[in-house]
Specification:
34% of the residues lie in helices and 16% in strands. It is an alpha/beta fold and 115 residues long. It has one domain: Oxidized Rhodanese, domain 1 (3-Layer(aba) Sandwich), CATH 3.40.250.10. Strand 2, helix 3 and strand 3 form a beta-alpha-beta unit.
């Protein structure tokens, strides 16, 4: 359906593409981290199944230490609509993360499994 390498080479992916990548990750065909940058109360209300880390944009530079050791990984950032995660993407890239992808439309446009 999708080409994993092409998706991981993009700057931005959509909800369907993330669903595919998450299903492939379950099969151990791809490795990446899914990072939610919304506030904790938003995360606790509804989140995509498969989120690895919560790094709220409001406390980003304090919480970033939780993922610093993963600079060589593919990182997919997500929020509610895609704006905060795009900001986080820029911050991560400025801190030396090379493979950062934003979820366009955020959780609002994601139709896969949520908790």
């Amino acid at each position: 359906m999708y080409n994993i390498e092409e998706l991981l080479g993009k700057n931005e992916i959509n909800g369907k593409e993330l669903e595919y990548l998450l299903s492939e990750r379950k099969k151990e065909r791809v490795k990446f981290l899914l990072v939610d940058v919304r506030e904790e109360y938003e995360y606790n209300t509804k989140r995509i199944a498969g989120v690895d880390f919560l790094v709220p944009l409001s406390d980003f530079f304090n919480k970033i230490k939780n993922i610093e050791q993963y600079k060589s990984y593919y990182i997919i950032t997500k929020c509610k609509l895609g704006g905060r995660s795009a900001q986080a993407q820029i911050h991560l890239q400025s801190l030396g993360f090379k493979k950062v992808i934003n979820l366009a439309g955020g959780i609002t446009h994601y139709k896969g499994d949520v908790l």
